[in-house]
TrEMBL record:
Protein name per the record: STXB6 protein
Alphabetical UniProt keywords: Coiled coil
Endpoints of the signal sequence: none
Single GO cellular component term: exocyst
Gene source species: Pachyramphus minor
Length: 159
């Protein structure tokens, strides 16, 4: 679990939890501050496995995710969190699949989706604004035409 506080300055930590067989709850095993993380080792980038190692300032810890997919998601979130909250020493990510650090991460995909939605909404608003502008112009033309008609009708009536 990678968690970040909302206090200023933000503090990010990594907490290792364990779920025992037959239980639905998790037990906290160990916790480190993100600044203590030195290396993330995916062990084998060519094989989908849930095992990985984390090297901290004064500790080495072996981890096992529930699935290889969850490991990948954890790495993406961890990498993003490190990029966002660590200014000095960022940990080294080794033996990790390239998609974890590349443009195909779930975070980049989500950001791309949001950006795309914002662009589509902006385009729709612009188009609607243009249609409203044309409708206002047409309304003004109709108003002027109606005034001219009323004036002409008034003149014809009293002639």
């Amino acid at each position: 679990i990678c968690s970040v506080t909302n206090k200023k300055p933000a503090q990010a930590s990594i907490t290792k939890v364990k779920q025992f067989e037959g239980s639905t709850s998790f037990v906290r095993r160990t916790q480190w501050m993100l600044e203590q993380l030195r290396q993330v080792n995916g062990i084998d980038p060519n094989r989908d496995s849930p095992e990985f190692d984390l090297l901290f300032e004064n500790a080495f810890d072996q981890w096992v995710a529930s699935t290889a997919s969850e490991k990948c998601t954890f790495f993406q979130v961890l990498h993003h969190t490190c990029q966002r909250y660590l200014t000095d020493k960022k940990p080294e990510f080794i033996n990790c699949q390239s998609k974890i650090m590349g443009g195909n991460s779930i975070l980049h995909s989500a950001a791309d989706s949001v950006t795309s939605a914002v662009q589509k909404a902006s385009q729709a608003l612009n188009e609607r604004g243009e249609r409203l502008g044309r409708a206002e112009e047409k309304t003004e033309e109709l108003k002027n035409s109606a005034q001219q008609f009323a004036e002409t009708a008034h003149k014809v009536r009293f002639c």
